[in-house]
Amino acid sequence: MAIVGAQWGDEGKGKVVNYFSDNYEWIVRFSGGANAGHTIYYQNKKYVNHMLPSIKPNSDAKGFLGAGMVLDLDKLVDELNILENDFPGISSRFYIDLETFLVLPWHKEEDEIIESMRRNPIGTTKRGIGPAYTDKVSREGIKLYYLFDEKLLEDRLENIYYLKQNYYGNKLKSTKEEVFNYLINARRKLEKLNVNYASAIEMGKVFRSTSVLFEGAQGVLLDLDFGTYPFVTSSSCMAHGVSSVGFSTFELDNVYGVLKAYTTRVGEGPFPTEIFGDEAEVLRQKGGEYGATTGRPRRIGWLDLPALRYAKIRSGLTGLVITKADVLNGIEKIKVCTKYSIKEEIKDIPSSSYDFFVAKPIYEELDGWSDTNDINFLKFISFIEEKTEIDIDYISYGPKTEEMCTKNSLILNINK
């Protein structure tokens, strides 16, 4: 099964993955890097993973970091050390694909330099993600396996540094010697933690003989190919990204899209249902809507069904999980965008990502609910299902992993 964000990220995928992880032997991250923040709560303690798959510490599940990611080795080591303090030996349950590309210190410098040079900044997290993927595509990157051949690594860094000096001159502070030492030290730290290395070729038979949960990063509307370009991330945010682990989407039994009961977005870019002022601030405070990676306040909007239909088609969603339903508790009237007006044409589904830039939302208003056991909340769920023709199978009503229920459980509680 794959779990992906059905909006602009920050939908609560980490908690949802954690909830389902009991039923899977492998949890696999297939895209993104340290720009993704997946928050989980375990034994009343909060853990924010930027690199690691959201495995449950008390389970037997193992984690795999796939070649579609870009690894920030500092962040990876930090996250492993945090988990090791509470769960000694857990690092040995993580495997990393040797083909994975690395985020290097100068990528973070480039991220800041380029963002500062833009007339209209795109809202990057400055974690070096875009420059790392750029180097991957332009064949100037470093793969993980280079760290195990120091001569090959030195030669590679020499060539890359020569090119970057021609690009940036003295703007880059990191030297090739510093980057080399950084990488070797990171390798030694990972070896000390007993992390495993493998490739998707070696793991293919293992994955296909057991159960695998693929954990996506960000959301479909931030996908490099089909999101609101250029205000997107630099990788695949859709289920199709499982191809980087050697899988086809045809091998997936289910693709769950995670959505909030409202909509949020971090950074720049179009946001058709955005709201402002006190109305937005109330939801921001109630929902704790601040980026897990950057701490930036998230932009707030009403639920956007045309965008959800777009995500359904783009990523082949077979079911939905709705989160933060409790944040809307006590609001008298709830708005839901059901259609877009695009240059005087009414559309149920955007034809392309361009439509998000010019869309004007058309709303319907629903009665609010006191809590998620209220009949009006069930009507809200049914309204979404009817308008999108996709079932909401699970409901999250709080931040803890166990604060999830099936729609059938919800119905039974309401009937009581």
From TrEMBL:
User: EC number(s)?
Assistant: 6.3.4.4
Q: Which residues bind GTP?
A: 9-15, 37-39, 298, 324-326, 396-398
User: Which Pfam families has this protein been placed in?
Assistant: Adenylsucc_synt
Q: Which superkingdom is the protein from?
A: Bacteria
Cofactor list: Mg(2+)
Q: Does the keyword Kinase apply?
A: no
Places the protein is found: Cytoplasm
Name of the protein: Adenylosuccinate synthetase
* Organism of origin: Defluviitoga tunisiensis
